[in-house]
Amino acid sequence: MEINHCDDNFFMNEAFKEAQKAFYKDEVPVGCVIVCDGKIIARAHNYCERLCDSTAHAEMQAITSASDHLGSKYLNECTLYVTLEPCIMCAGALFWSQLGKLVYASKDNKRGFNIHSKKILHPKTEILDGLMSEKCAKLLKDFFKQKR
């Protein structure tokens, strides 16, 4: 899918659409997209429940898809947009992929990588947080409210 729109809000909204897909599949509603040269090259959402795999986070799925698309394990020219701050596992994978830029919406004060250290990411990775935070946090809250 070719998109020549280089607006962070646009791409975060695309990640939000992925989170909504997860919500309707009874997965924790986290979604992401990876963008390279103004084009979405990977879309993903959590698949942990469906795959019975605790590593099937949206970011992990998207990294695999983007790497396959590019034919490279490095994503240094890419931006990942995700609706929730990545966990330590995903941040580690983003480190190894040498991600160029990370944009995330809501902070995860319990399991997000920032509670440990921003040094988990590659030193050249740019970080932008808080984009569409309230909208993304509400989807998560609504999901967990249904579970209680």
Write a brief caption for the model.
This protein has five helices and five strands. With 148 residues, it is an alpha/beta fold.
Describe the structure.
This protein has helices at 8-24, 48-51, 58-70, 88-97, 133-147, and strands spanning 31-36, 39-45, 78-84, 101-106, 126-129. It is of the alpha/beta class and 148 residues long. Helix 4 (88-97) links the parallel strand 3 (78-84) and strand 4. Helix 1 packs parallel to helix 5. The radius of gyration is 14 Å and the shape is globular. The chain starts with 7 loop residues before the first helix and ends with a helix. The relative contact order is 0.16. Residues 1-5 have low confidence and may be disordered.
The average pLDDT is: 92
Computed over alpha carbons, the radius of gyration is 14 Å
Structural class estimated from helices and strands? alpha/beta
What can be said about the biggest beta sheet? 5 strands, mixed
How many β-strand runs? 5
The termini sit apart by 38 Å
Shape: globular
Counting DSSP H or I runs of 4 or more residues, the number of helices is 5
Strand content: 15-25%
Strand order of the largest sheet: 2-1-3-4-5
* SSE string: HEEHHEHEEH
The helical percent reads 25-40%
Unreliable runs: 1-5
